Amino acid sequence: MTRTVTAGTTDGGARPVPQRLLAAATRLFADQGYDRTSVQEIVEAAGVTKGALYHYFGSKDDLLHEVYGRVLRLQQERLDAFACADAPVERRLRDAAADVVVTTIENLDDTKIFFRSMHHLGPEKHKQVRAERRRYHERFRALVEEGQRVGVFSAATPADLVVDYHFGSVHHLANWYRPDGALTAAQVADHLADLLLRALRP
Amino acid sequence: MTRTVTAGTTDGGARPVPQRLLAAATRLFADQGYDRTSVQEIVEAAGVTKGALYHYFGSKDDLLHEVYGRVLRLQQERLDAFACADAPVERRLRDAAADVVVTTIENLDDTKIFFRSMHHLGPEKHKQVRAERRRYHERFRALVEEGQRVGVFSAATPADLVVDYHFGSVHHLANWYRPDGALTAAQVADHLADLLLRALRP
Amino acid sequence: MTRTVTAGTTDGGARPVPQRLLAAATRLFADQGYDRTSVQEIVEAAGVTKGALYHYFGSKDDLLHEVYGRVLRLQQERLDAFACADAPVERRLRDAAADVVVTTIENLDDTKIFFRSMHHLGPEKHKQVRAERRRYHERFRALVEEGQRVGVFSAATPADLVVDYHFGSVHHLANWYRPDGALTAAQVADHLADLLLRALRP
Amino acid sequence: MTRTVTAGTTDGGARPVPQRLLAAATRLFADQGYDRTSVQEIVEAAGVTKGALYHYFGSKDDLLHEVYGRVLRLQQERLDAFACADAPVERRLRDAAADVVVTTIENLDDTKIFFRSMHHLGPEKHKQVRAERRRYHERFRALVEEGQRVGVFSAATPADLVVDYHFGSVHHLANWYRPDGALTAAQVADHLADLLLRALRP
DNA sequence: GATGAATGAGCGTTCATTCAT
DNA sequence: CATGAATGAACGCTCATTCAT
Asked: Where is the HTH tetR-type domain (chains A, B, C, D) (predicted)?
């Protein structure tokens, strides 16, 4: 029951309330988990009251759903761009595989939320997110299958499993990657894409 | 599925109370998440009362900690066995990589809990689990490094990253693997170990 | 169902805003009760915004008070007309008793609100309504007493009690009368007036 | 989800907690209405905490349901006793009609709640209460019909309507009867039963 | 060893009302 | 005239934990 947001606040150039709420919720959900984050904490972090939150969002669950919508839209768009590029399939897969790593690292909070809190969505929203996730998976799988068909990738492993293998490592980034660590996002992306392509060598 | 009776069973033939509680908690935590599972649900599922739970466990948190202890112990033991085996390093790594997949699938509930509920542990228990997890990671990494040193594995990718790559896919199993799906645990393990080894080909 | 336009209608042909609000509130209060009806629901049903409601009415409470005012005025007027008619007292009482039944059934929503929501009015409005109600009661009682005095009605029962006996059954209509039931409003009115007159036979 | 209450408190001879809660709720519901009475008020009046209330009752709604259960049971039992008595039908109806007045006056709070708050029950409980109420109505109607059949009562009015006529006045008692008024409960009962019987004279 | 009544703090949510525009 | 964002207080309810028995 998300209400459409048309205008923002005017007080002193601050970001509009719904965006402030979404940002606060994203950070808190990622840090503490969905269940451990109270609505009170969110509104305090955003500097508004509960009433304001429920003016823009139908429920705490809705807030989570919005986060999912944002990250799903972003990733799908980027994947589409790479998959449709005019390049050999091994190049397109490599670029897509590396890009999802970079994008994930740049939005680590969203990713943490994505994989840890999916089951907190109500059944209907859960189903919707799973469907969008599925589309994403299949787009990626199509690339792998294309490469296997034309013979540049080994067909020893089912394409589905290959996709889950790679996404597993992407998902796992939220568990170990630290921005102040030894590797930049681009370096990690390069290595992980490399591992995928090497694993697919015929 | 162990049936070892260690402490005072009162109602002849049933498993002792602490084990019944642990089993009930494991299933419920995996199905609904730690926060969504009430102590009341656990004791009802185990067929005891709250008093009994608090007799054996100091807190709900303790219950979770016990689950972690069990799975960590199990995985460490198995890895140690494979790592110390008398075989070429590529064989030892392959066996270890495949075994963690099988073990994970056989204990999917524990794995779900492991990755989704770590942040529910209190700080000191959290630290303890992370330390044990680290030891496990390093044991595995040592195998990769050994292979790289002796030249049977490519050294293009840092060993740490290789380990996280593989464990990412293992962790991800809880998100997609279904016992009634197309592939058996052994087949999945074979494929994933294969992908790892192929990615490491010099 | 009046279509009298008293104040600034803006959107050609629709009833003015205050009347739309009052009608919406009446229906909702009767269906769900005063407390279960939110101001938001009322304004949505009336097709206006909250600001508009608070422009015309001081509070939600005010809305309820208006409903009371309308029904009280209507019933008092009708009773006065029957009581002052030029006819024998038994005829006048009978007609008045039957008319209040018909009027009540024709405005069942108002009646539901009347008896269920009186205690939701603020103290001074409550007192005011009770006073008007009292006047109505006394007007009716006067008819009974008149008949008792002239001997056409039995004086075995105090007139006050007779009035409450009849009004009890009128009040109760909202609990059981259904427009699609076996009896028309007129038939019910006839029967109830009959019972009253028969009970008063000397 | 009412839990069965097996034992009470031991501190100082006070009534057990569930009974204290029920008594407090009854009084408050009658005085202020169901919606206007907060759970907080109830527990404060009963001298316990919310947790205690929810230990014994599944919901606020449950509390209301218990009140209904008590009054329905009581009235049905009394009606049954009078209806089955060994006496002419006019005597049995008169006694039953008078008794329900006395019982109602003695439990005016319950009656207020009964007629004003029925629609606050959830659909399932509502249906159940309506069914029990229906049984009561039919038992009473059977008495009227019996009298009409044997000719001691006029058959001019449908028996159903006669019953609603009388119950209307009983229901209405909560709106006007005051214990410190001019009439005792027995006197009011006598008069109202009288009116009913006189209305039914052939 | 085990019970279950009771606590107390906190939860997500609702809502009549206000007020700058 | 009318809007709708925002408030602030209250709501019904949950739950891990304690403790007298």
From this structure: 15-75
Mean pLDDT of C43-57: 90
Show the tokens assigned to C26. 């009446």
**If you search the block for the tokens 């980034």, which residue do you land on?**
A173
Residue B47 or D11, more confident: B47
Residues whose CB is less than 8 angstroms from the CB of residue B6 and which lie 6 or more positions away in sequence, other chains included: B16
Cβ burial, residue D6 (10 Å; 0-12/13-18/19+): exposed
The whole-number pLDDT of residue C198 equals 96
**Helices assigned H by DSSP within B39-88:** 39-46, 50-56, 60-83
Q: Who wins on pLDDT, C11 or A43?
A: A43
Q: What would be the CATH architecture of the domain defined by B17-56?
A: Orthogonal Bundle (1.10)
> For B61-200, which CATH superfamily applies?
Tetracycline Repressor, domain 2 (1.10.357.10)
The residue that minimises its CA distance to C1' of F11 is D38
3.40.50.2300, 1.20.1250.10, 3.40.50.300, 1.10.357.10: CATH of C60-200: 1.10.357.10
Q: What pLDDT does D118 receive? A: 85
Report the top-level CATH class of A68-200. Answer: mainly alpha
Residue B126 corresponds to which tokens in the numbers above?
A: 């959290």
The architecture (CATH level 2) of A11-58 comes to Orthogonal Bundle (1.10)
What pLDDT sits at residue C14? 63
Please report, rounded to whole angstroms, the spatial distance between the CA atom of protein residue A4 and the C1' atom of nucleotide F5: 13
Give the helix/strand (H/E) hosting A19.
helix A17-32
Is the per-residue pLDDT at C120 higher than 90? no
Kindly determine whether the C-beta of residue D12 is less than 7 Å away from any atom of nucleic acid strand E: no
Q: Domain residues of chain B, as ranges?
A: 17-56, 61-200
